[in-house]
């Protein structure tokens, strides 16, 4: 594609201007002559030219302004210094300050034969930097030195001169400060004889903008004669830095339908050049907009502030009609107040058109159909809607409500977060025999409210027709669970109850048969026709199949459908306790020393599987103890424990002591248990029970043997 001629001309013009700017680097801004000497006249005549000054900022002297240290003089447009009235005495020195947006400098007029006058030069000059105007009594005269940055070879080059009108013969100038004898060293130097100041290398204003130097005069031995006097070196800015955008990425948001002139965002660029010059004075522009629909100029940027605003009507700022609700703008920042020769910096601004809820959701059809089997639960139909708003916002997300036809709260509807559909569910099983059809009225709204000029219409409601399908339901036991209470150990064949199950399918007239489903202990039977439950074994409360005195069994009720349906019922039998378990003692063995001083042998405890009152208090006693054997004693401790002790020490041997324990039931139950007692030898802290003797008879057996022996005599 052939480029347009104006663009080629602009490029050529920019190159010419850049080349011109590069050539200007050899131009030294400031006064071409900085020091003048004139003889004191009898009188300075009004409007009579005293001398001509030649000042250049190397850029055309735009907005050149002069200031003179005496209020009686001025510099005219041709650069001539003239008196404003007839003046006789103005002092020994006049200073002229010249300034443009790009440069400034000071010229000195030495009046030979002039007389001192009172007054401060600093009160006359209004510029911001510290005035280098010397005090009247000093003979060293210095003025600020202005040096452009980025100067080319050759170096060193003279940039200013220090004058000392009263300098003794043989004295020398000395220059010190940062840039001379302090880092960065060696940038400036002074001719010790003439006072000429030179620079030795290229300067960079963005690195160091000013240098504070000091000038003094010394004798041949290096001793200071006068000074030091401050000398300021000012680096003049050149346009050598492009504007840059540092704060990206730049993303702005604007609501669709916003009024023309709505501020979207602000773009701010930075320029490292001198902010007091046009080198850093930026102007902003939109170079390109993508996409360029519905208008190639959707936005405008304030050239000075960088504010991006909308410039199209609210109707064009419609997110739903745009090809893409995201715009990318290439933003230019150009220094030199946006002139063609200014340097450019660019950045991309992304603007997102945010959605507002200006479209209501609408059902894709007015009526939906669904079928569900009775007794079933879960999702039965998905309701579909359309919404033109942004799918990532609450202006698109749907919220469904059942507004009619759900008095029993059998239905619920929830939003599918993936596709925005309404999932209609059955949460309480439906009964065909009660109602075979249901009709629901559903409405849909957005999570976010609609904008004021949009409302929900007829398409935001829909009707759902639900058909309930009949299925063969299993019989239902009533009540469930069934509960009875009986004593344990009732006779086999005892009737416990007659179960009752009904068929929900009342229109089918089916018969019901019963059977045992789960009977863990095998104690029960059921009549298959009438449902009578009786016992086939003794009910035992202490059985491991009984938990907390309750025995659980399950029964089935089976209808005559095809295929048959089954219902399950639970029977809970609470068993009342009877005293059918004798108590038992623990422990059943003990040891005691043959020479023990404490004749206590063991503490016995008793336990019973039955429940109170068929348990404690227990009665402990020695069973059939003969008079000669009364060496043992049982003493009650509490309702469940007793102490066995000796009445005298026994020889080392094993003994069997019959203990009888009786519970408190009516009638009571008794248990006799042999308590094995070892009488051991205990000497020198050693217990020996191994040789307790060969006798292992109970005391009753010893008594019987003795009686038999007496009978044989």
Automatic annotation (TrEMBL):
A Pfam family the protein falls into: Cadherin
InterPro entries (alphabetical): Cadherin, Cadherin-like_dom, Cadherin-like_sf, Cadherin_CS, Cadherin_pro_dom
Domain Cadherin: 147-245, 246-363, 364-477, 478-585, 584-697
Compartment(s) of residence: Cell membrane; Cytoplasm
UniProt feature coiled coil, ranges: none
Regions that span the bilayer: none
Signal peptide range: 1-22
PROSITE patterns from the UniProt entry: CADHERIN_1 (PS00232), CADHERIN_2 (PS50268)
Keywords, ordered alphabetically: Calcium, Cell adhesion, Cell membrane, Cleavage on pair of basic residues, Cytoplasm, Glycoprotein, GPI-anchor, Lipoprotein, Membrane, Metal-binding, Repeat, Signal
SMART domains for this protein: CA (SM00112), Cadherin_pro (SM01055)
Membrane topology according to the record: Lipid-anchor; GPI-anchor
Record's function text: Cadherins are calcium-dependent cell adhesion proteins. They preferentially interact with themselves in a homophilic manner in connecting cells; cadherins may thus contribute to the sorting of heterogeneous cell types. May act as a negative regulator of neural cell growth.
Quaternary organization: By contrast to classical cadherins, homodimerization in trans is not mediated by cadherin EC1 domain strand-swapping, but instead through a homophilic adhesive interface which joins two elongated EC1-EC2 domains through a region near their Ca2+-binding sites to form a tetrahedral, X-like shape.
PANTHER family listed in its UniProt record: CADHERIN-13, CADHERIN-23
Name of the molecule in the record: Cadherin-13
């Amino acid at each position: 594609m052939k480029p347009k001629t104006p663009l080629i001309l602009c490029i050529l013009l920019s190159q010419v201007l850049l080349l011109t700017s590069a050539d200007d680097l050899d131009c030294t801004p400031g006064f071409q002559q900085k020091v003048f000497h004139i003889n004191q006249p009898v009188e300075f005549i009004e409007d009579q030219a005293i001398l001509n000054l030649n000042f250049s900022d190397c850029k055309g002297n735009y907005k050149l302004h002069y200031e003179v240290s005496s209020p009686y003089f001025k510099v005219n447009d041709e650069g001539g210094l003239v008196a404003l009235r007839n003046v006789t005495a103005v002092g020994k020195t006049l200073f002229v300050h010249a300034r443009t947006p790009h440069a400034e400098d000071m010229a000195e007029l030495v009046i030979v034969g002039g007389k001192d006058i009172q007054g401060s030069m600093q009160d006359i000059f209004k510029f911001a930097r510290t005035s280098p105007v010397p005090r009247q009594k000093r003979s060293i005269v210095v003025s600020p030195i202005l040096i452009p940055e980025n100067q080319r070879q050759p170096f060193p080059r003279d940039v200013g001169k220090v004058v000392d009108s009263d300098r003794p013969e043989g004295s020398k100038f000395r220059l010190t400060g940062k840039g001379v004898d302090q880092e960065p060293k060696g940038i400036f130097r002074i001719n010790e004889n003439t006072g000429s100041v030179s620079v030795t290398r290229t300067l960079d204003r963005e690195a160091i903008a000013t240098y504070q130097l000091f000038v003094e005069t010394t004798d041949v031995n290096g001793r200071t004669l006068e000074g030091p006097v401050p000398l300021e070196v000012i680096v003049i800015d050149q346009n050598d830095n492009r504007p840059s955008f540092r704060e990206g990425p730049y993303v702005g948001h604007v609501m669709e339908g916003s009024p023309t002139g709505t501020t979207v965002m602000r773009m701010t660029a930075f320029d490292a050049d001198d902010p007091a010059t046009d080198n850093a004075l930026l102007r902003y522009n939109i170079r390109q907009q993508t996409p360029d629909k519905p208008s190639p100029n959707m936005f405008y940027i304030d050239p000075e502030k960088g504010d991006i605003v909308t410039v199209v009507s609210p109707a064009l700022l419609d997110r739903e009609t745009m090809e893409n609700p995201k715009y990318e703008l290439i933003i230019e920042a150009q220094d030199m107040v946006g002139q063609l020769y200014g340097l450019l910096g660019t950045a991309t601004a992304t603007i997102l058109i945010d959605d507002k809820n200006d479209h209501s959701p609408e059902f894709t059809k007015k009526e939906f159909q669904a079928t569900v089997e009775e007794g079933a639960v879960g999702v039965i139909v998905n309701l579909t809607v359309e919404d033109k708003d942004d799918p990532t916002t609450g202006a698109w997300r749907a919220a469904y409500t059942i507004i009619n036809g759900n008095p029993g709260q059998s239905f619920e509807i929830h939003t599918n977060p993936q596709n925005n559909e309404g999932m209609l569910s059955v949460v309480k099983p439906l009964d065909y025999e009660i109602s075979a059809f249901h009709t629901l009225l559903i409405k849909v709204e957005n999570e976010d409210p609609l904008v004021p000029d949009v409302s929900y219409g007829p398409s935001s409601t829909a009707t759902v027709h639900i058909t309930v399908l009949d299925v063969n339901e299993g019989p239902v036991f009533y009540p469930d669970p069934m509960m009875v209470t009986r004593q344990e150990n009732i006779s086999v064949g005892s009737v416990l109850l007659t179960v009752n199950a009904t068929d929900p399918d009342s229109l089918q007239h089916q018969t019901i048969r019963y059977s045992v489903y789960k009977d863990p202990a095998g104690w029960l039977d059921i009549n298959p026709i009438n449902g009578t439950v009786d016992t086939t074994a003794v009910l035992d409360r202490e059985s491991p199949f009984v938990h907390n005195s309750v025995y659980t069994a399950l029964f089935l009720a089976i209808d005559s459908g095809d295929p048959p349906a089954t219902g399950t019922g639970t029977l809970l039998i609470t068993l009342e306790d009877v005293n059918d378990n004798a108590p038992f003692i623990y422990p059943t063995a003990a040891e005691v020393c043959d020479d023990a001083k404490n004749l206590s042998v063991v503490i016995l405890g008793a336990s019973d599987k039955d429940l109170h009152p068929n348990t404690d208090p227990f009665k402990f006693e020695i069973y059939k103890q003969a008079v000669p054997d009364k060496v043992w004693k049982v003493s009650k401790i509490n309702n469940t424990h007793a102490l066995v002790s000796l009445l005298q020490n026994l020889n080392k041997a094993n003994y069997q002591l019959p203990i009888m324990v009786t519970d408190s039931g009516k009638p009571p139950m008794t248990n006799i248990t042999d308590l094995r007692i070892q009488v051991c030898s205990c000497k020198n802290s050693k217990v020996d029970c191994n040789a307790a003797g060969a006798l292992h008879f109970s005391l009753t057996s010893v008594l019987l043997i003795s009686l038999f022996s007496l009978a044989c005599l």
